[in-house]
Design goal:
Layout: E1 10-14, E2 18-22, H1 25-32, H2 34-37, H3 59-79, H4 86-97, H5 107-113, H6 120-134, H7 140-146, H8 153-159, H9 165-178, H10 187-192, E3 194-197, E4 200-204, H11 208-226, H12 229-250, H13 259-265, H14 277-283, H15 288-298, H16 304-314, E5 320-324, H17 330-344, H18 348-354, E6 356-362, E7 373-375, E8 381-383, H19 384-387, H20 393-396, E9 400-407
Parallel strand pairs: 4-7
Antiparallel strand pairs: 1-2, 3-4, 5-9, 6-9, 7-8
Length: about 400
């Protein structure tokens, strides 16, 4: 494995944690690679800045922050006598550094509209495997940890579990940039209370209240930020816009777009296609600016759907959104639909884009994907649901589903 001889002991000044040191040459080369630098051009919270103006931080910020917390967690576990070799520490840091590298611009809108149901987790796997080839097998341990196939299972749980450094960073960072104080967590205390029992990641009983706060903060952040009703309206408008753009492009309409965006609009791309160098390299050129640049031009397009949705997103003229606990009555949706068709002189096909009827769910805690385990002084272990007196885990484990209906605000 060969690396250039430039000084790679770098320091990033992070607004959340302060100085983050990069002391390993391989990590530095990964950060410097164009695939990773692309994350500077992808906002962490997509369209959330339309509600919380400060939410302009990027996937790049989050990835570095999560890596920093992994460094802190490893140092804590080593201090408690657990053996984590230099290769294992490097592998864990790389796994979390690259865990979000598969995100595209406005990630979830892209997953459902431009590429055919390809998730960012699947693309992150492709990128890590590709980096492993580029760096002559230097990411083999990182890939096993990312896949949760490494011998020491607790390292994989630090990357992805009910209490991982990914969640610790995004809750802390997203609450910082949105200004939503309910999302603030005591990440220092949570890191200090981490331990390993057998091969499982556990939290010392002294940290149980910090765990309770973490779960509560996550629930509140979902309703106040990630699933905020106006953010939902904007995200679904973006999905409909990209869906229409792809429909028109596949039908032969030539839309203004960057080469990277045009590539994905004019082709049906599935997961298997990302084995092709051209596809993954073109995806690596795609970021928020491609979408925004296209929308600024599409505002004046002759197609009613393209122009209306582009103007709405660029100029923040967002749809009205109604939320309720039960599905909307069909006759009510039809009534709104008739008004929309009449107001904008739409065809039935065009009207399908203007009426958005869907649902969303919030899982504060998902025990079926693994429990948060609490270890007591006598060595006994209980999951958080058994250990806490103040949280109703069975209630928090049930998805809270809200049904919503979006349509133009001019319709009363």
């Amino acid at each position: 494995m060969s690396f250039s001889l430039t000084n790679k002991r770098k320091i990033f000044n992070d607004p959340v944690y302060g100085f983050i040191s990069i002391s390993n040459e391989l990590i530095f080369d990964l950060i410097e690679h164009p695939y990773f630098q692309r994350l500077r051009r992808i906002k962490q919270l997509g369209l959330t800045h339309l509600v919380y103006p400060g939410a302009l931080h990027t996937r790049f910020h989050h990835s570095l922050g999560a890596m920093y917390l992994m460094q802190r967690a490893i140092a804590e576990l080593r201090a408690k006598g657990h053996e984590i070799t230099a290769d294992e520490a490097l592998g864990a840091e790389i796994a979390i550094l690259l865990h979000d590298i598969g995100h595209g611009p406005y990630s979830h809108a892209l997953e459902y509209a431009i590429v055919d149901g390809v998730s960012h987790e699947e693309l992150s796997r492709f990128y890590i495997q590709r980096f492993n080839r580029i760096f002559d097998g230097g990411l083999s341990v990182a890939f096993e940890i990312f896949e949760k196939k490494y011998l020491k299972q607790f390292l994989g749980k630090m990357v992805s579990s009910q209490l991982d450094v990914d969640r610790l960073d995004y809750l802390k960072r997203d609450s910082f940039f949105t200004g939503v104080a309910e999302g603030v967590i005591n990440f220092e205390r949570l890191l200090n209370m981490l331990d390993v029992l057998g091969d499982d990641l556990v939290v010392e009983a002294k940290g149980i209240y910090s765990v309770e706060k973490f779960i509560t903060a996550r629930r509140l952040m979902y309703w106040q930020v990630y699933l905020h009703k106006t953010v939902l309206a904007a995200e679904y408008m973006m999905m409909r816009l990209l869906k229409r753009a792809k429909y028109l492009s596949l039908g032969g309409e030539k839309l203004f777009a960057s080469p990277a965006l045009s590539f994905f609009l004019t082709k049906k791309i599935t997961l298997d296609d990302f084995n092709n160098d051209t596809v993954i390299n073109t995806f690596s050129e795609l970021d928020d600016y491609d979408i925004l640049g296209a929308m600024k031009v599409w505002k004046n397009h002759k197609d009613k759907v393209i122009s209306f949705f582009s103007r709405g997103l660029v100029d923040r003229k967002l749809f009205r959104i109604e939320l309720q606990n039960n599905p909307f009555e069909e006759h009510y949706i039809l009534e709104i639909r008739k008004k929309v068709i009449k107001k904008y002189k739409l065809t039935d096909e065009e009207a399908d884009y203007f009426i958005i009827n869907d649902s969303t769910s919030n899982y504060a805690y998902k025990p079926d994907t693994g429990e948060i385990e609490i270890v007591f002084k006598d060595g006994s272990v209980k999951n958080i649901g058994e250990a806490t007196e103040d949280l109703n885990i069975s209630l928090l484990s049930k998805p809270v589903t809200k049904y919503f209906l979006c349509y133009p605000k001019e319709i009363t």
